[in-house]
Amino acid sequence: MIAGFHEDPGPGTGRRAPRADFVSDAPRHSLNGQWRFLLSGTAAGTGPGLPDPALDDSGWERIRVPSHWVLEGHDRPLYTNTAYPFPIDPPYLPDDNPTGDYRLRFDLPADWPAARDVLRFQGVDSCGTVWLNGELLGHSKGSRLPFEFDVTGRLRERGNVLAVRVHRWSSGSYLEDQDMWWLPGIFRDVELLSRPEGGIDDFTVHASYHDGTGTLLVTADAPGLVELPALGLAIPTGEQVTVPGVRPWSAEDPCLHRGTLTAAGETIDLAVGFRTVEIAGGRLLVNGRPILMRGVNRHEHDPDRGRSLDRATMIRDIELMKRHNLNAVRTSHYPPHPEFLRLCDEYGLWVVDECDIETHGFIYAGWEGNPPAEPMWRDALLDRARRMVERDKNHPSVIIWSLGNESGGGATFGDIEEWIRERDPTRPLHYERDPSYRHSDFYSLMYPAQDTLERIGQRKEDTPAGVEPGSPDDVRRRELPFLLCEYAHAMGNGPGSLVDYQRILESYERFCGAFVWEWIDHGLAGRDALGRRYYRHGGDIDASPNGERFCLDGLLFPDRTPSPGLLELRKAVEPVAMEVSGGELVITSKYDFTALDQLTFRWFVEADGMRGASGTLSVPHCPARSSVRVPLPSAEAGGDGETWLTVEAVLAEETRWAPAGHVIAFTQTHLGTTARGRPPSTPSPALSSPAPDAEPAPTPQPAVGGRVGEVRLGTAVFDGRTGRLARLGDVELDGPVLDVWRAPIENDHGLGGANAPAADWEAVGVDRFLHRTAALDRPDERTLVVRVRSGPATRTLGFRTTYTYRLLDDGTLHLRIDADPVGDWDDTAYGHLTVTPPRMGTRFALPGGYTDVTWFGLGPGESYADSRAAARVGRFRSSIDALQTPYVVPQENGNHVETRWLEVSGDGLPTLRVDGEPHVDFTARRWTSEALRAARHPHDLTDSGRVWLNLDHGQQGVGSASCGPALPERYRLKVRPRTWSMTLTPVRP
Ligand code: IPT
Fold this sequence. Notes:
Blueprint: E1 12-13, E2 28-30, E3 33-42, E4 61-65, E5 78-80, E6 96-106, E7 116-121, E8 124-125, E9 127-132, E10 135-141, E11 147-150, E12 160-167, E13 180-182, E14 185-186, E15 190-195, E16 203-210, E17 213-220, E18 224-228, E19 233-236, E20 241-244, E21 257-263, E22 266-272, E23 277-280, E24 283-286, E25 289-290, E26 293-297, H1 311-323, E27 328-330, H2 338-347, E28 350-354, H3 378-392, E29 398-402, H4 411-423, E30 429-430, E31 443-446, H5 450-457, H6 472-479, E32 482-487, H7 498-505, E33 511-516, E34 524-527, E35 533-536, H8 564-572, E36 576-581, E37 584-589, E38 599-607, E39 610-617, E40 627-631, E41 641-651, E42 663-674, H9 685-688, E43 710-713, E44 716-719, E45 725-728, E46 731-739, H10 746-749, H11 757-764, E47 769-780, E48 783-792, E49 798-807, E50 813-822, E51 826-827, E52 833-834, E53 839-847, E54 852-859, E55 872-879, E56 896-906, E57 909-925, H12 929-934, E58 946-955, E59 978-987
Parallel strand pairs: 26-27, 26-33, 27-28, 28-29, 29-30, 31-32, 32-33
Antiparallel strand pairs: 1-10, 2-15, 3-4, 3-6, 5-13, 6-12, 7-11, 7-15, 8-14, 9-10, 9-12, 16-17, 17-20, 18-19, 18-21, 21-22, 23-24, 24-25, 34-35, 36-37, 37-40, 38-39, 38-41, 41-42, 43-44, 44-45, 45-46, 46-53, 47-48, 48-49, 49-50, 50-59, 51-52, 53-58, 54-55, 54-56, 56-57, 57-58, 57-59
Helix pairs in contact: 1-2, 3-4, 5-7
1-methylethyl 1-thio-beta-D-galactopyranoside (IPT) binds near residues 405 and 447.
């Protein structure tokens, strides 16, 4: 077998030197569009005839460029997390190597000048060999980086034939083991550029800012004139000027000074942002001030187009980030399309630009032969760093270079560091995976627990494994700022603790920013048997190895709908904190640069969720990182029930990324509570004592006035054997049944068997309790006591629950539930395991005709113990269908903590009202938790014909243990006696 270019570990051949990506008025001809395409099974492709202009390709398929062929009906996408889908046999690849041969016939535009010509590919995955009119130009690897060929003198006016052979696997694939779909193809733009003779090919903008003064120097490989009209500047390249009083660039105020760089035959667009990045005193400073990045890790993803994104989608991402109070993005784990960075300059985001290097799969070789440690790969790795830095160096938004992700350590990182420091001393470097941190200006980790992070903030972290305590590396690292490059794994329902993390991040000067993993679920669009659209994960494609669902860990669903996790993040990172203290509202700006003048503070009062007085606060000038106090509005409650004051900080005027009135931050304060009509009722102490250990015999006899097998209490009818409510007035229902389980969320499965409570629940049977009604007692006319023991087969563990019903004077039914643990919850039979149930609650079945829920409590979205900051106290209404959060893989969702009351209604049916005492958690859905667990996709969930209503004491938090620390103890439900109460009222329609 002849090794082709694709197995050569070198980065490429025949390419031009990397240079800045810029926009100019020089002729540019897009070669995007329909190309001829044929896919073959091996690296030989269609054979040696591919470049031949005379080859008859009329029978070939057509494919759009840019795209990934696996998303255009050829072969299939594959997803692995860390594993290489080929043997670790570097730099070689298996013979089975799907290879796409591309051909394009094109004419030059009529007015194409006679000058130098450059052919540019913005991204080819994984490797492209290129011929023009039968002549080999060269090849290139580095999928997410551009490459160019000089084609001067090789073009014809008409009938040019461009041929490209693209291999799915190449030596470059060993350097591209990011946790994402393997998506081959020419997936970014292809273009022909006319480069003027004697013109500028590459230039560097040095625009710094110190104490109100900017300094500008543009260097270039040919002479040119720099003009920034608004600043009255016209200077030749190579000449430095100072600009007093200039407005600097920051993510908060992305001031770009637009102008031109004019050189022979060309005018280049300039967008200069004056800013200086430095590390001083162990902190990251921009323009002399510390910054805190509130960031996300962004992969390029679209459910139909993969990593082939259009500009509108890039803008959508940035708008969504800005609208959710994010100010930073780590381009995990490769440089994005260059247009994205132009947009970051314009909209204002701090960017950590990350190189297209990840060798994670060497973990399965014990890191033996890891490319950064092998001289054979040095050129390829350095080439990637150079192409990133040269392409992106002129973007003010790029403030940090990241050398790559999850690639262990190796000498080549030292070479890369040296090269970048020499080429661009203006930006600090980040690399997380080498515990010496020698090549990084930041200490950095992924997914630390909160207490670990707290110690890092205090610079008291444990010395990383492999580093000698007290050694120079240890001492140096402790002085570095800390950048949390990944945390809060947003897989499925979650992440939890965002507010906890933010509190820590804002408490210590060492922290310069944190990036949630990750921005968007990498689901790929599919159609079910009925033609309904759904999203596929790795496990939906028959391939091995397979990372399965791990690609679904974003804050956006694949269609870019914000998940509840993103709404929680928006609240956790809101840049304005408001707190009521001593009758005043204390407003604290967490902006690093801008004052709060762009915000309006509006307020309103609600009683039992009904809107009362409202107005606008007059807030004095509040500079960045400072506080002001304003008097609270004197608002009357004006209604019964709980009264709350809400203050919202909103955009006073429309911005580029959001309309006027867009809410940046909010706070709520409880003003007081007045009676709602029904006196709070407490069952008599005698009835509330826990059930004695000796159980009375079951008493399933009919009660006076009931049919055989029935017990009645006012309008409430109970099943005489189970003691469950069967009817309340005209409301038909079946329940309560003790429910201590939830359909596991991704975080309940943990990572690779660690922190996997769902498995523990199943091991002991928390998911399959059986119930035995031990006794029904009527201590008096108005009271029914039902005693039930619940637990799983094969175990002693369970709960003994006492349901005490009391008929109140107004005819409503009061229910108190006392659940006491019994048996052995410390499971010693199969290793020592203390199981905590995910839920303490009761489940009711209602007729399927119920359609809506109105409630007063937290809403409108779902809330959990450790993810509830985004929810507000108020009155909300939703259809039961809309209460479901459509996680791409079905799992527990739609909980509402601290619900004061709710009403379940449906056309022609009596409404069921539930008043918590003081609260219940509720969920309502058309399927059971068991069905939710069994479903693989949302379309597997079908209406059971009933509504399943959970009225719970509580549920454990969501955490982010799918890749991260275990759920903190405080968000779990310890096994101990629990009591909760509510009243149930039928309301006529
Ligand atoms: C970390 C990776 O950097 C990221 O790409 C992604 O895989 C994430 O985890 C999990 O979704 S690596 C992990 C082993 C900590």
